[in-house]
């Protein structure tokens, strides 16, 4: 009887939480605000933003006891003034390639407790509402995966939920703790059916990085932030034990491009799945310079400016796998990025279909100065808010 009641209660709770995610409460909307592009539009344009994650603070800062300064490109108070009053301001810790501090902090019970204490001190000193843990990635497949094999990082899979447990204990129940997590299954080494339930005990939500889904470790073209691969990522976390209402879908406010093989690609019926040139050094994992990307706030690199203009004017939307693309057969360049239309399509195709709790983007300032992609998200969130009011 106890087992049956527990099961029934779980399903009742799950149903109520899902109803909240889809109906009574508008979805979460998280924006990363980065030191590279620390600009914010007028407050009306960030009306749906529920959380801001300031990126990044280095994890190494929390492995040195007695710290009194917490270097960041701005302050919590400065950012808070630019958003609606209820917006939570968080500190994102880590980022691509910055794993040394996490490794040192996660190593033992003692180091985990010390790391968490220092993080709690930082949160109190800065006035932040919480933290976002951006360890890329526990268990391996990070920037140095060719130099430090995954076998030497296997211990991190067990250490990761233990570190999150100490962070929750140090910060208490009222602070927000989230984690940015990989969007490719090959990188989900620490996110399994054994670990995800333990991880989610300590987190408010996951920011699933459903972008960079094509990167220099690939050898054929695909959509770097497409619908099909986004659905696969979401399904993997749900299958491992994450509730959909605790998952946020990631959006990319930037472009990606990659050099392709000419002869093979021109013979294919579709440029999706076209072979690329070798994109990473097979020994070091380093970037060979045959791909790139830039935000909407950045100047377009001169060497691809003409090709990018063609991509904007001649690109198309892939109705099968879901993503905007253009293959420049003259310069052998594959372009993959979200247009405002592609962003709006993801709400019915992914967010609503999978009953997700929210969305996020990397990053807010990257969409300046026009904020067209943010505008597309706002339109979709306006519609969701309208539906919520009608349901109530």
From TrEMBL:
Keywords: Hydrolase, Signal. GO terms for biological process: carbohydrate metabolic process; chitin catabolic process. GO terms for molecular function: chitin binding; endochitinase activity. Residues 27-384 form the GH18 domain. It is an enzyme of class 3 (hydrolase). One of its GO terms (cellular component) is extracellular region. The keyword rRNA processing does not apply. This is chitinase. InterPro entries: Chitinase_II/V-like_cat (IPR011583), GH (IPR017853), Glyco_hydro18_cat (IPR001223), Glycosyl_Hydrlase_18 (IPR050314). It comes from Podospora didyma. PROSITE patterns: GH18_2. It comes from the Eukaryota. Residues 1-23 form the signal peptide. Its EC number is 3.2.1.14.
């Amino acid at each position: 009887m106890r087992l049956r009641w527990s099961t029934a209660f779980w399903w009742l709770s799950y149903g109520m939480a899902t109803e909240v995610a889809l109906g009574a409460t508008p979805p979460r909307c998280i924006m990363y605000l980065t030191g590279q592009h620390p600009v914010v539009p007028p407050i009306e344009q960030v009306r749906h933003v529920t959380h801001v994650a300031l990126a990044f603070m280095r994890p190494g800062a929390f492995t040195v006891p007695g710290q009194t300064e917490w270097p960041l490109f701005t302050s919590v108070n400065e950012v808070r003034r630019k958003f609606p009053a209820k917006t939570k301001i968080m500190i994102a810790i880590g980022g691509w390639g910055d794993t040394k501090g996490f490794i040192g902090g996660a190593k033992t019970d003692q180091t985990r407790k010390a790391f968490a204490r220092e993080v709690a001190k930082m949160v109190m000193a800065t006035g932040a509402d919480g933290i976002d843990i951006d360890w890329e990635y526990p268990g391996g497949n990070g920037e140095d995966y060719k130099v430090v094999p995954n076998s030497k990082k296997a211990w991190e899979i067990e250490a990761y939920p233990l570190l999150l447990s100490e962070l929750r204990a140090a910060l208490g129940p009222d602070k927000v703790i989230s984690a940015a997590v990989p969007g490719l299954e090959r990188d989900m080494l620490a996110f399994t059916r054994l670990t995800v339930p333990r991880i989610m005990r300590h987190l408010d939500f996951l920011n699933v990085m459903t972008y960079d889904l094509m990167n220099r470790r690939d050898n054929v073209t695909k959509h770097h932030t497409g619908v099909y691969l986004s659905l696969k990522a979401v399904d993997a976390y749900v299958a491992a034990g994450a509730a959909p209402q605790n998952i946020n879908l990631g959006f990319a406010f930037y472009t990606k491009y990659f050099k392709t093989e000419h002869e093979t690609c021109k013979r294919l019926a579709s440029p999706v799945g076209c072979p690329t040139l070798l994109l990473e050094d097979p020994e070091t994992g380093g970037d060979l310079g045959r791909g790139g990307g830039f935000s909407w706030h950045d100047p377009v690199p001169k060497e691809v400016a003409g090709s990018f203009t063609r991509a904007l004017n001649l690109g198309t939307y892939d109705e099968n796998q879901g993503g905007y693309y253009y293959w420049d057969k003259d310069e052998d360049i594959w372009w993959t990025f979200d247009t405002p239309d592609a962003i709006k399509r993801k709400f019915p195709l992914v967010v609503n279909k999978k009953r997700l709790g929210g969305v996020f983007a990397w990053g807010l300032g990257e969409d300046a100065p026009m904020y067209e992609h943010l505008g597309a998200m706002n339109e979709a969130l306006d519609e969701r808010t309208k539906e919520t009011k009608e349901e109530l």
